[in-house]
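Data card: per-record layout.
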Amino acid sequence: MEIKKNIPNNTVTRKLVDLDKETGNIYETVNIIARRANQIATELKTELNRKLADFSSPTDTMEETFENREQIEISRYYERLPKPVIIATEEFLDDELFYREGNEEKKQAPEA
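The structure for this 112-residue chain is written out next.
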């Protein structure tokens, strides 16, 4: 997963007006951001597990696990990444998210 470099690692206080300008409803905005954050978290976890799977073997002991520098560096990299909610919020504010409302009715042709 590609993460932009300009995303802060710490939380940033935001105005509610800035968050609900797209949807007109802060609860919809929070729902959209939360769903995207779940997607990002799943992608990051899958990516991390795939990278760490290269280091695992059935005969690993605890000493071997702690001494593996490459594995430690990979883990530290993922620990330093911004949280998924922060990434999703930045994507939302930068208009990079596509979302649609589920309650829109489909138009049907009149029956004759």
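Known properties of this structure: Residues 26-53 form the longest helix (28 residues). Helices lie at 16-19, 26-53, 62-67, 69-80, 84-93.

See the next section for split statistics.
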